[in-house]
Amino acid sequence: MLSLSINGQSYPVDVPDDMPLLWVLRDVIGLTGTKFGCGIAQCGACTVHLDGQPVRSCVLPVGSLGNRAITTIEAIGNTPAGQKIQQAWLEVDVVQCGYCQSGQIMSATALLQRTPNPTDADIDAAMAGNICRCATYVRIRAAIKQAATGKAEILQTMVSAPAGAAS
Amino acid sequence: MTRFLIIVVLLALIGVGAYFYLNRTDASDGTAPVIAGAPPSASVLARGEYLTKAADCTACHTVSGSGKAFAGGFPFKLPFGTIYSSNITADVATGIGSWSDDDFVRAVREGIRKDGQHLYPAFPYTSYTQLSRNDVLAIKAYLFSLPKISQPNKANELSFPYNQRWVMGFWNAAFFKNQRFVADSSKSPEWNSGKYVAVALEHCGECHTPRNLGFGLEHGNELAGQELQGWRAYNITSDQVHGIGAWSDGEIAAYLTTGHAEGRGSAAGPMAEAVQNSLRFLQPADTAALVTYLRTVPAREGKDPISVDVKAAPVIASSNAAPGGDSASADNPGLRLFEGACASCHQWNGQGQQTPYASLLGTRGVNDVQGANVTQILLHGSDMRFAGPNIFMPAFGDAYSNTEIAELSNYVIGHFGNKQGAVTPDDVAARRKQF
C-alpha cells in the first residue's frame, strides 16, 4: 500500500509500483483533470507538478515518488502563480478544444514560479514540450506574459467583462 | 622443372601441416575455477541454468518476444550477408535433440557442428573454447530439460565465398586458439574466477575487443572498444581516461547488475540486453570477481578514444528547467528539438527527472563526438524491463529526419559533453539500417 501526497491530501492507494502516476490519478483516485495524450512523455498533456517541478505523469512510476508533493490541475489555482495563469488564460481565451490545456497550464505555472518575468526564449524552452493540436501557441505565449506583467498583451475576451455588462 | 615441382609439393605439405597444426584441438576436459553461482555441490540443472544465463545463450538463440526460448532464428546482419542463429532446443528434427555429449562439447568449444561442418564465429566458440567440459555439459543438460520447440533453422543469406563453411577452417587456423581455460597461479582465485566469467562465459571481448581486417579479435588490444552493428561497445580497459579505470568497484558492479551507474551512464542497446539477459543474474561474488578481473586489463587508449567531461560547462551553467551557457543560439535546430522532446525527462542539467537512468552528464555516449550510441538510442529508443519500473525511452527514428537526428545528436554532444559533435545526416542514414 502506497501513500501519495496529492494536492495537500494523503491518498492511500493499492497499486503496483510500476503503475504510472497518470493511471493512479485518473483511474484509481478519480482526478481526471490530468489528461492522457501520447503515453510516452512526448506531448505534455499529462503534466503535473512534483515538488513544484513539471513532470510527465504518464511515464512516472508511482513507486518512485515517496512523500513528494504532487500537484494536479485540480489544485493549481490555489497557488498564486497558478491563479494568475488561469485568470490570464480566461482573459485571453487561450483554450480551443482544451484537451492539452491542463498540461499547458501546469507547465506555464511552473515557469512563472521559477521565472516571474519570462522572456520569449524562456517561454519557448519551458513550453516546447507541450503540444497543442489547435495551435493556440500564440495565445499561450501572450497569456503567460499577461500573467507575469498584469498588462493586456492581446485582444481580451468577454469573460473578463464586468459582471452585469451587456453581452 | 623437377625442382619447381618439389618446391610446390613441399610448400603444399608445409601448408597442410600448418593448417592441421594451427587447428589442433586441446584434448583436455578443462577445469573451471570456482563460480559462486554454479558450485560443484549444486545439481547439474541448477548449474546449467546459471551457466546458460552467464554465457548469455538466450541473447542470440531466442528471438525476443517470440516466446520460443532457444529456438533460434535471430538474424546477424553482417557486411557480407545475414546469418541466423540455430534452434538449440532438444527437438530431434529441428533442434539438437540427437546430439551426443561429445557433439555438443565439440560445437561449443571448437565451432564444429554434429555433421562436421564449421560454425561461423558469430557463435562465440572463440570464447566458449575456454569452458570446462563439465560446464558445457551442465548447459546441455539444462537446455535438454526445457520444452522442445519444433522450428526449422533459417538458411543463411551469405554471398560467395562466405557461404563456404570449409573456409572457416582457414579462419580458425589464423585467428582461433582451441584451448581450455588456464588458471594463472600467480593471481588470486577471485581474479581467475573473474577471468573465466569475463572471457569463457560472458564473452565480453566478442563485442568490446577490436577486430582485425579478417574479423579476428585483436588479442593484443583486449577490451579497448569497437563499433559493432552501429553501436559502440566502449573501452572497458583499466585506462583512467578512456576506459573504466576511474570508475569505482561499486560503480562497475552497479552498471553490470542494474544497467546504470550514477554519473557514469546507463546501458542501452546490446549492452542493455546483456544486462537484462545475463549479467544481472550473476551472484554478487561472481560480479565482484568479474570486476576484479576487469581492473587488471591493461590500460589502452583504443581507436577514436572518448574523454569524458564530467563537468561540462554548458551543463553546469544550466538549471534543471532552463539552458544556460550554450554556444548554441536559441534558434539552433538541435536545441529546439531538445527542448521540445527531450528536456522534460533528461533536463537541461542532465540530471534526469523521471529516473536516474535518464541522467546524461558524465556518460560516454554524450562525450563521443561520433555520436554512435546517441544516434542509435534516438533512432531506436530504449526499453529495459528488469530494474524495477520499466526504463523506457521512446524511439524517434520515425518522427525525425536524418538531418534532425544529426542536429539533435550534435546539440546533445555539445551541451552535455562540451564537444563539437561530428554526426552527419549520412551517418544517421547508415545507422538506421543497423540493429
UniProtKB/TrEMBL annotation, chain A:
Pfam families: Fer2, Fer2_2. Residues 1-76 form the 2Fe-2S ferredoxin-type domain. One of its GO terms (molecular function) is oxidoreductase activity. Keywords: 2Fe-2S, Iron, Iron-sulfur, Metal-binding, Oxidoreductase. This is (2Fe-2S)-binding protein.
UniProtKB/TrEMBL annotation, chain B:
GO terms for molecular function: electron transfer activity; heme binding; iron ion binding; oxidoreductase activity, acting on CH-OH group of donors. Pfam families: Cytochrom_C (PF00034). Keywords: Cell membrane, Heme, Iron, Membrane, Metal-binding, Repeat, Signal. Heme c 2 binds at C204, C207, H208. It comes from the Bacteria. SUPFAM superfamilies: Cytochrome c. PANTHER family: ALCOHOL DEHYDROGENASE CYTOCHROME C SUBUNIT, BLL4482 PROTEIN-RELATED. This is C-type cytochrome. It comes from Dyella dinghuensis.
